[in-house]
Each structure stands twice: as structure tokens, then as C-alpha cells.
Write a structure and sequence with these properties.
Blueprint: E1 2-5, E2 8-12, H1 18-31, H2 38-51, E3 55-61, E4 64-76, E5 81-91, H3 100-114, E6 120-122, H4 129-137
Parallel strand pairs: 5-6
Antiparallel strand pairs: 1-2, 2-3, 3-4, 4-5
């Protein structure tokens, strides 16, 4: 499936897109204060694409990669339905405010609907106000009823 908004298009990634994704994924990790490591990024993405255990959507402007989002499948026991976790959303700095993030969010929404999912869920850093405004604008509602707990190893 491809969708477009103006000169922005989106397409689902495959293993042939690995070289395009590695740099963006590494810069995404750096945004979240992880050290740059293209080798780690390549290995992680190659495994996701090979195993098909995530969905990666690439946003392009005029045929050039400008950003990506990565979705992981999950399930809601309460609703007994699939749920997609929008785990990663990144747009290259030179392409921000050009509709890439909106196109990626729309493609993710369409994918969730097409797969019969209950919806999409995401987390972002508390200081990432720009992303929070976009998510709110696109209909995402911040959850004030549940706390998130993490057990890290």
C-alpha cells in the first residue's frame, strides 16, 4: 500500500530498503541519547525485516527517504483484538514541517484499520512537545488513567 500527501509518499519497507533505513534509524536512536552505532542499527533492522516481526513505513519526498515509522504488533486481552505499538517515528531535520510525519501517521492508521486492530498506541518523551502537539492534532489521546512501569535488564 502506498499513500501520498502532496509530494510526500509512504511505502512499506522491505529488506531492499535496509541501506536507506540504517542512517535514519541511527539518528533516531541518537535523538534518544543513545550512542551512534550504524552496525547495531543495521543488525537490528535487518532482523526485524527478515523476521517480519515489525512493520516499517518509509516516508519519502520526491522519491527520497525523509523519515520512517516502525510498528510492532501487540494484543489487547480486554478487547481480544490486535493492537499496534507505534514505537518509532523519525523525520530527517531537513524534511520536518513538510507533512512527512502526518503522512507516516496516516499510513500507520490505515494499516491498523486494514489489519482489524483495536488501534495504535505510542509513547514519547515528556519534553518532546512538538511530537505531543502532532499526536493530539491527529486524534491521539494522552492516557491519564494508567501509569507505565518498566523492568529493565
Amino acid at each position: 500500500m502506498n499513500s501520498s500527501a502532496g509530494n510526500t509518499t509512504c511505502a512499506f519497507a522491505s529488506e531492499k530498503d535496509l541501506d536507506v533505513l540504517v542512517g535514519m534509524f541511527d539518528r533516531y536512536r541518537e535523538f534518544y541519547e543513545q550512542p551512534g552505532n550504524p552496525s547495531l542499527a543495521r543488525g537490528f533492522l535487518a532482523e526485524r525485516l527478515r523476521l517480519g516481526d515489525s512493520v516499517i513505513i518509509i516516508g519519502e519526498i520526491d522519491g527520497r527517504a525523509a523519515g520512517f515509522t516502525q510498528l510492532y504488533p501487540s494484543f489487547s486481552s480486554v478487547s481480544a483484538r490486535k493492537l499496534w505499538i507505534l514505537n518509532d517515528l523519525y523525520v530527517e531535520p531537513a524534511h520536518r514541517r513538510k507533512g512527512v510525519a502526518q503522512a507516516l501517521l496516516e499510513e500507520a492508521r490505515q494499516h491498523a484499520v486494514k489489519t482489524g486492530a483495536k488501534g495504535l498506541t505510542l509513547s514519547t518523551r515528556t519534553h518532546n512537545v512538538t511530537a505531543q502537539k502532532l499526536y493530539t492534532q491527529k486524534g491521539y489521546v494522552r492516557d491519564d488513567n494508567y501509569y507505565t512501569y518498566n523492568l529493565t535488564f
